[in-house]
C-alpha cells in the first residue's frame, strides 16, 4: 500500500509538544474513517507512524485531521511539518469505537493525555446525535492544565448541558478549578447505572487498566468497556506482525477492543 | 541556511573508520556537495573552525590530553557520532584495561618514562554524551552513509541492534555453526556487517560488538561443543570489543 | 489426466519446457555444505545422491547409496524467499510503487509441508482487507511441482501437523521419486489444467497401477517414519494455558534470541520497514525486510520494548506458531518442516518444548 | 641588527595518516633541530599479542593500520608460517599476491590523488581540486575503487579483510566471481597509465637523497607480498637476519621507535623498491616509467609520487595476470599446526617494508612479538629530508617553508598510526 499525498491545510498548536493538523488530499481522497480508526502518516524521508483520526467525523470534504505529539524522529517531523507541505497518508485502518452498541445507554468517555485525540470524534459524534444517548460524560486527565488538548473545545463542552465534563490533572497550576489526581477518582465518584453504561477508554496502558478495574468494580461489564490499544506498527494492514497482542493483530482486530478481550491479555507480563 | 558542516576527529585508532569515508568512492564528491567537510585532517589541510553540525569521532580515549579534547569536541558539535569499536567500546587497545599498563609500556618501549598514557582505553561515551554509535571494526560503509543521510534528513539512522544471524539468513547463507560445526559469534553479535564472515564460511568473531541483550552464557557451551577450548572462548570475546562483551565469557573458572 | 511416469530425461525436459514458457525454475542444489534453493536449468543441477542428516542444531550432507534427486529433507531456505523476499523496495520517489516485472517462478521439488506453508503465507499476505500485492502476484504466477516425501528427515514432524508427507492440493504437478531395481523415475500427477498442459509436452508414459500403488505406499510409510512429533492434544489451548508457565524461563536460558528459527521458518512473515534518502534528501524510498519477534526492537514503543526478556520473546514465537495463528488466520502457523529445530544453533526443539509445556500444564491440572 | 625571534605554529599537517608534530629550530640561519614528533598514543600491540594464539595475529595486527591492513596480515602470516614450517600451495600464494595488489592500488591511489597531488597543484584537498578538475579526482577514486574491489572480493572487505588466515584463506573465490572484477581492472589499467602521465607533469623541487635503501626483493619479480631483503650497500639477506641488522631505539620526541640499519639511517618504500626492482616491472609499467622520465632508479623523494603511479600500473597489470591464470585452489588453506620456534616475516606495505617476528611456545601461544612498521624505519630519513629541505630554503617566508616541510613529509606517505598520529609543525627561529 502506497501513501497518498496530502497537504497540510491547517495546523493548530495544542500544547508545547502537540499540534492538530488538517490534511487535504493533493489528488485522490482516502475512504472516510470512523471514530477510533487510525492512519499511517509518512514524513518525507523520515518515516511513517500510526496516528489516530481526531477530527470531526461528520466532515465529508475528504480531509483527515490528526493530533500529533512529538516524541521521536518521525512524530517530530510530522509535528514540525508546516502548512502547505505534503505528507503521505495510508488508511484508514483498524476497528473504530462501537457507538452503535451505546445507543440508548449512558456513554462515559475517559481520556488520559493524548488519549483524547481518538476520543474527540466520539464526543463530536455523540453530540451530533445527542438524542441517541442518555448521559454523556467526558472524564479527561492531563499532567498539567496546560497539557489538555483542544482546550477551547473542552471549555465549550464544559458549558454545554448535553455533556458532563470532568477534568483532572496531576500537577495543578495557579487558578486551576478542576480536579487533582488520577482519572479513576472522578470515575469512582460518577453517578452510574452500571448495566446501562458503556465506557470508552484511551490513554496509557496502566491508566486504562486502572479505569477498567474501577468501572468493573462498580459493576460495568467488561464487554461494555472499550479500550484503544497501542502497539508498534509498521504496516497497519496486518502483515508486519509487530502489533500482536496475543491473539490480536492490533491494527486489524483493534485498536479498539472490548475489555473482556483486552483485559486478560494486558494482565500478562510482556505479552 | 548554509550547508551543514562535518568534522572528523581521531583518537587512538588505526584510521580505518575515517578511511571508510574516503572509501565511499561513488558518494564522496556528492557528499562534499551537500555538506561542508569542515575538519578532516586525513583528507584536507583546510580547516573551518567550529561549531560543527556533525562530528564523527574515531578512536578511544587513552591520554589525559585526549580526555580534554573529547570534551572540547562535544562542546563544538551539535551531533556527535562515535564511529567504530575504538570509539564505541575502547577498541582492541582496551585490553590494557585488564592488564598492567606500566608493564605493557615496558614491553613496547625501552624507556617507558617518555610515554604519557592513561591506564585505560575508553569509549567516547564514558566521557561525553554521544548521540549515535556506529559499531564495527571497522564500521560498514553502508551504515556510515545511511547515518549521514539520516542525519541530513532528520531521520533515526537504521542501524538495527539485532543479531548477525538475521542478516546471515536474509542473505540466504547457510549457517556455519549448524552445517559446518564452525564456532560463530553471530548469535550474540550486532548486525551491520552484512554477515561477512559466514559468507566466507568463517565464524563471526564479533567485530561489531554485542547486540542488544545478548545471551552470551547460552552461546558458550555451543562454542565449546564445536571445538573451542576455554582459552579460545575467552580470547575471541576479548579482542576488538573486549570492554563491551566484558568478561561475560567467563561463566566458569578457567582452571 | 491419469497418473504418468517420467524418467530422468522427462524431468530434464520438464525443466526446459518450463524455461521455454517463461518460468524461472527454482530447485534444490548443493552449495556451502547444504541443499539450497537456486535457479536450475537441467536435472544436472539437482543434488543427485545427496541425503541429509538433520538433528537439533545440526545439519550435514550425506552421500546416499542411490542417485535420488529429492532424497533430502528441508534445507536452510524455504520458498518464502521467492514469494516474500528478504528485502524489497516498497516504493520510491513520489510514492511510485515498486511493481516491476514480478518474476514467474516454477518451484521444483516442493515438499508437502512447504506447500502447506505457502498456503499459510497466502492466508496472511494474500488475503485479508489489504492483500500484499507483490506477494499475491508472485503467488498467482507460480508453477508448483511438488515432491512427495518418501523419506522424512530427522527433524521432520509434518505428519503430526497434518500437512504431509504427501501433497494433496495446491500444486500443478506432483512427483513421487521412485528408484526401483535399476530404474529411476517419477510417478507424476497433474493438479491443475496448466500442470496437465505442461505434462503433455514432456515425454512420459502412463503409470501402471502397481507403480501408483507403490508410490502411494512409500508416502504412506513415510508418515510412520517421522523424526519427531508434536505432542497430541489441543496445542492452541496448551499455548493459551501456558502463558505464565515456568517453563519459558528454562527455554530462555538456552535461547540465544538470535532469530534464526523465525528466519528459516517457511511461514514467519514478519517484516520491518526502512526509510532511506539520498544525500540530497530529495529522493526517498521505503524498503521492507524480514524481521523477527526475537528482535528487541520488534515490540518497541516510545519509551521501551514490550517484550524485553528472552522468555517473552520465545513465548511470542512459539505461541504464535502453534496458538494465536489460529485466532488470527484460522490455521496453525507451524507446518512441521523442522527447519527451526535443525537451524537453531542451540538446538532448541519446538516439539520438545511443546511436550515440556504439556507436562507442566498436566501437573497444574492434576 | 635587532634579533628577530619568530615562532611559527602550524597546527595540523593534514593528509597524512595519523597525528604528530614537527619541531624545527633555526638558529642564526642554521637548522638546529628537525624532529618529526610522533605523539600518537601508543596502542601496545606487541604487549597484548603475548599469550594470544598463533592464529590471531592476522586479525589483530590488521588493526594497527586501517590503510595497509593487508600488509600487516601478510607479514604476520609469513612470519607465523615460517615459525610453523608451512609453505603455501602456489595457487594460494598467488591469491595472496592478488589481494596485496588490491591494497597497493587502493592505498597508492588514495595517496596520489587525495593526499599528495593537492601539494603539487596548490589545493588544500582533493575536494577543492575536484571543483576545477573533477574528472581527475573521479579517475583517482575509480582507481582506488578497483583496488578496493580486489580487497572486497578476495578479502571480504577493504579495511581489515576477514578472509585471511595463517596458511591461506577461509574461502576462495570461484573463477566466475572474477569476471566483473577483471572488466573493472581493465578500465583501471588505462586510468593508471593516465595517472602516471598526469603526475609526471608536476613540478618537482630538486632534492637528491643519499639515504641507504632497504626493500624486499625477489630475483625475477617486483617484490610485494614476500621476499628477501636487499640494501644499497651490497648484499641480500633473509628476513630472519633482520634483527641482526635493524635495531630500534626510542627517542624522546616520538611514540614511534626509530630504526637504524647497522647503526645508520635508511629509507624503505617506493623509491627503494623501484631502485632495486625497476627491471622487474611489467612491460606496461616499465614503459610508463620511461615515458614519465624515470631512470633505473629514483632518488628524489618528491618524485615518489611518480614511482607510486608506476607501481599502480604494475599492480593492476599484475592483478590482471593473476586473475587470468586463476584456477580455484584445491583447498582454501594449508593446515598449520603450531610448534615452538620463531618466525620472521616481511612484506612491502605501500609505504615500505613491514617486518614481523613471533616467538611461539609449543602450545601455539605467542611468547613475544616484534613489529617494525615502515614509518618507524623511515623516521630518521624523513627528519634528514626535512633538515635538508629547510636548510636549502631558509629564504622562504614562514608559510611557504612550512608548506614545503609538510610536503617533504608527505613524500613518504607516512603512516603514523602504524607507528604513531598527527603532525603539528612548530618552527622556532632565533
Ligand atoms: C493505533 C495507534 C494510534 C496512535 N495515535 C496517535 C495519535 O493520535 N497521536 C500521536 O501523537 N501518537 C499516536 N500514536 C503513537 C505514535 O504512533 C508514536 O508516538 C510514534 O510511532 C512514535 O514514533 P517516533 O518515530 O516519533 O518515535 P520513536 O520513539 O523514535 O519511535 C521509533 C519507532 O518505534 C515505533 N513506535 C514508537 N512508539 C510507538 C507507539 N507509541 N506506537 C506505535 N509504534 C511506536 C514506531 O514504529 C517508530 O517508527 C498512535 C499509535 C498507535 C499504535
Ligand atoms: S553462521 Fe553465524 S551468523 Fe550465520 S546464522 Fe549461523 S550462527 Fe548466525
Ligand atoms: S513467530 Fe514471530 S516472526 Fe514468526 S510470524 Fe509470528 S511474530 Fe512473526
Ligand atoms: S530458538 Fe534457537 S534459533 Fe530461535 S531465537 Fe532461540 S536460539 Fe535462536
UniProtKB/TrEMBL annotation, chain A:
GO terms for molecular function: 2 iron, 2 sulfur cluster binding; flavin adenine dinucleotide binding; metal ion binding; oxidoreductase activity. Keywords: 2Fe-2S, Iron, Iron-sulfur, Metal-binding. Gene3D superfamilies: Nucleotide-binding domain of ferredoxin-NADP reductase (FNR) module, Translation factors. CDD domains: sulfite_reductase_like (cd06221). One of its GO terms (biological process) is pyrimidine nucleotide biosynthetic process. Binds 1 [2Fe-2S] cluster per subunit. [2Fe-2S] cluster binds at residues 235, 240, 243, 251. Residues 1-99 form the FAD-binding FR-type domain. Its cofactor is [2Fe-2S] cluster. This is NAD(P)H-flavin reductase. It comes from Amycolatopsis sacchari.
Automatic annotation (TrEMBL), chain B:
The keyword Oxidoreductase applies. It comes from the Bacteria. InterPro entries: Hydrogenase_assoc-protein (IPR051349), NADH_UbQ_OxRdtase-like_20kDa (IPR006137), NiFe_Hase_small_N_sf (IPR037024). Residues 14-151 form the NADH:ubiquinone oxidoreductase-like 20kDa subunit domain. Pfam families: Oxidored_q6. One of its GO terms (molecular function) is iron-sulfur cluster binding. Keywords: Oxidoreductase. PANTHER family: COENZYME F420-REDUCING HYDROGENASE, GAMMA SUBUNIT (PTHR42845), CYTOSOLIC NIFE-HYDROGENASE, DELTA SUBUNIT (PTHR42845:SF3). This is Coenzyme F420-reducing hydrogenase, gamma subunit.
Automatic annotation (TrEMBL), chain C:
Keywords: Iron, Iron-sulfur, Metal-binding. Gene3D superfamilies: Alpha-helical ferredoxin. PROSITE patterns: 4FE4S_FER_1 (PS00198), 4FE4S_FER_2 (PS51379). Residues 244-275, 325-353 form the 4Fe-4S ferredoxin-type domain. It holds the Pfam family Fer4_22. InterPro entries: 4Fe4S_Fe-S-bd, 4Fe4S_Fe_S_CS, Helical_ferredxn. One of its GO terms (molecular function) is metal ion binding. PANTHER family: ANAEROBIC SULFITE REDUCTASE SUBUNIT A. This is 4Fe-4S dicluster containing protein. It comes from Amycolatopsis sacchari. The lineage of its organism: Bacteria, Bacillati, Actinomycetota, Actinomycetes, Pseudonocardiales.
UniProtKB/TrEMBL annotation, chain D:
Mg(2+) binds at residues 46, 371, 421. One of its GO terms (molecular function) is nickel cation binding. Its cofactor is Fe cation; Ni(2+). Pfam families: NiFeSe_Hases (PF00374). The keyword Metal-binding applies. Ni(2+) binds at residues 65, 68, 415. Fe cation binds at residues 68, 418. SUPFAM superfamilies: HydB/Nqo4-like. Keywords: Iron, Magnesium, Metal-binding, Nickel. InterPro entries: Ni-dep_hyd_lsu (IPR001501), NiFe-Hase_large (IPR029014). PANTHER family: COENZYME F420 HYDROGENASE, SUBUNIT ALPHA, CYTOSOLIC NIFE-HYDROGENASE, ALPHA SUBUNIT. This is Coenzyme F420-reducing hydrogenase, alpha subunit. It comes from Amycolatopsis sacchari.
